[in-house]
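Page 42, continued from yesterday. The earlier attempt failed because a stray header line got pasted into the input along with the sequence. Redoing it now with the clean sequence only.
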Amino acid sequence: SYSAMESLLHTLTPSDHFNLLLFNSRTKAFSASPVAATSANIDAAIQFVRGSDLRGDTNLQRALQAGLAQSTMPNSRLVLLTDGGTDSGIIQPGKLARWYASRWNALPPANRPRTDVFAVGDDANLTLLRLLTHGRGVLQSVTSTEPLRFKLNAFLSQINSHPVGGLSLTARPTTAFTEVYPLQSATFAGSVAAWVGQYHHPGQTISLTMHAINNGQPLNLNSTVTLPEKSLDHPGLPRLWAHARVEALLAE
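This time it went through. Structure tokens are written below.
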């Protein structure tokens, strides 16, 4: 988390404004309001983190509320560096995500920050963090066995670009699939968008339509496919389906 914070701060330019919020049971701000991203302010912010203690419970709700209160400028970003653990305030993922969405929607449209998350740790609460970024930002995660720099560079490149918006998949006939889940919270131009679902009628020919908004322009892609009775082309599919289904149930 510290490496991600330091790298992120050094991507800022003097025309940017930023603030840092450290949180446990309480939230401690580097500054009362966002400051210009000058070299002196960035160095002072890093020293602010180095001089702080890690202790106490974690109240993620309070931290998110403080972050939204800082979003007083248009085109704000809220970047969360965390494992998603929370043991005070609202702790249920679904309830916390709904609370955050309601507070986010209550802000003036120009001040609603895009929410990006860099999740660190083998036990990161990806269910909750995916809900917080849904439709509004990037979720990138790194575990103890993965190379940090690769994941961090991918995260930094994505938060400086805009995801393809309004991404959805529809099938005709509508009864062809049940429980269709996207496998990414956000998709960017040049990357792969994937869904996983379940069907019950092999041999049926269906049409698929993907809808999106890319660079302000509508994007629609169409395809026709015959659903196989059995296919061994994708051995990882059962695991993908199980993971997506469990994530959906946890979100509910």
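Notes: The chain has a mean pLDDT of 86.
Reminder to self: strip header lines before submitting.
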